[in-house]
């Protein structure tokens, strides 16, 4: 039976999800507590681009580094340097797990598992990566146990260890080390690639729409002093910028369709009978581009999130994080990360297309998340 949060069901999912959200909130999700960690990573990312002095650079790895470190700080209580070998191996392992999930070979494993076992390459590589991540998490758990600060928990693993202790005599409790390892795994898997991919789209769109980049920078300059440390509260004074961040999430539509879920009972949906056990995948993309809900669905238009007076408005069809019981567990965290990192970068740099590049490719690479093709940009200090 699947463990953790992302692909589990029934009691395991209910308990792990409830605990996961509650703990992320205790650790500051959606409030000041998590803000500091995000500002720290935004600062390192700004320094990375500053050191490049406007030379053409692929922003992917530094972005993945920043976003993964936000989760590391929450889950493990510490961050990694860009050069850290273990961290690089961890990112590589996650990439290879995601790549395996996107491959045709994965479908063969689902349909013909016996045949997959006979073809060692890809399956073994993915298992090796998965085992590396799991043993890394187990090592972290061991060192947390040794620190023995269950009574004053500081990160997700501390809180989880305390929860195991609290529920050890509760019948039906699903809090154990295997579920802890998988929940940590799921927070990484659900939280880092998605947010990093969205930020890669964000900077790519700024190259494609320099007039929109200008307008964001005009708003930032008009409202904040150049040395102001961006915080999430600033979004209330920056309606245009906030609208651009939401339009990036809509227009990049990185999830397209959700993971397969299962109807837990017979139900009726828009007049259709849906029997218990039916597999259901939500078509998030159809909502994000529905012409009945968006004025110019196939155009990058921050106006989608602004009213006539230029105030920020949310929209009913904005379902980038899905909806219902399986709605993204990290939505508040992701929105905070995207806003703070995006604003911190645009406050400091003008992003431009490297000299000699004539065309910008905005096609997607199809996969579990829709990624942009690799690209380079120049970050010119403003
Ligand atoms: C731009 C960033 C993000 C996007 C677009 C996004 C989108 C989504 C979507 C559409 C789902 C529903 C999937 C489904 O039903 O199959 C989901 C689920 C989930 N997300 Fe996110 N997500 C983002 C960031 C995050 C972050 C930062 C975290 C964690 C800290 C996170 C953790 C999760 C988890 C654990 C689930 C599974 C929830 C469940 O099965 O109950 N996500 N996300």
From TrEMBL:
Keywords (A to Z) from UniProt: Heme, Iron, Membrane, Metal-binding, Monooxygenase, Oxidoreductase
GO biological process, one term: xenobiotic metabolic process
Cofactor: heme
InterPro entries, per database record: Cyt_P450, Cyt_P450_CS, Cyt_P450_E_grp-I, Cyt_P450_sf, Cytochrome_P450_fam2
Molecular functions (GO terms): heme binding; iron ion binding; oxidoreductase activity, acting on paired donors, with incorporation or reduction of molecular oxygen, reduced flavin or flavoprotein as one donor, and incorporation of one atom of oxygen
GO cellular component: cytoplasm; membrane
Compartment(s) where it occurs, according to its Swiss-Prot or TrEMBL record: Membrane
TM region(s), chain numbering: none
Chief subcellular location: membrane
SUPFAM superfamilies (UniProt xref): Cytochrome P450 (SSF48264)
Residues given in the record as heme binding sites: 328
Family: Belongs to the cytochrome P450 family.
Protein name: Cytochrome P450
